[in-house]
């Protein structure tokens, strides 16, 4: 049995529901956009994204408040929510997804260890954040982050709408 890549499943669902997606990436460095655009026809639903690695980019491109970055840091629930909302609004997309984390091998602290990744999702009626703790090397953490982001969007799209 062949398992379809999540980016393919995501594309099918977005297309079926006539939804558009935009991405805001920090620790994944463009991996979400890369994987999404590997799918033929992704221009039907993927509007684009920002790789906002530095805090200045998060603030300037995505509208993340400097106070949020100072009080909570780049890797936080609050920051990914603002990133997801900012990219959704910037591209006028139905959905915005954001990723910010510590891929390692350095950069971790006791409070925010290597492998901590926050994923934000923004839709017109709701914003959500998800905390993950991944293990492995830098590339593995990035890949796990991308897959988790896709799964969160898939799950959101498949939820019964009230």
List the helices and strands and how they pair.
Elements: H1 6-16, E1 21-25, H2 31-37, E2 46-51, H3 55-62, H4 66-72, H5 77-91, E3 95-101, E4 116-123, E5 127-133, H6 138-158
Parallel strand pairs: 1-2, 1-3
Antiparallel strand pairs: 3-4, 4-5
Helix pairs in contact: 1-6
Structural description of this entry:
The protein is an alpha/beta fold. The chain has a single domain (6-157), classed as CinA-like (Maf protein, Alpha-Beta Complex), CATH 3.90.950.20. It contains 6 helices and 5 strands. A 5-stranded mixed beta sheet has the order 2-1-3-4-5, with helices on both faces. The longest helix is centred in the C-terminal third of the chain and has 21 residues, at 138-158.
Short characterization:
This protein is α/β, with parallel strands linked by helices and 162 residues long. Helix content is 43%, strand content 20%. The mean pLDDT is 97.
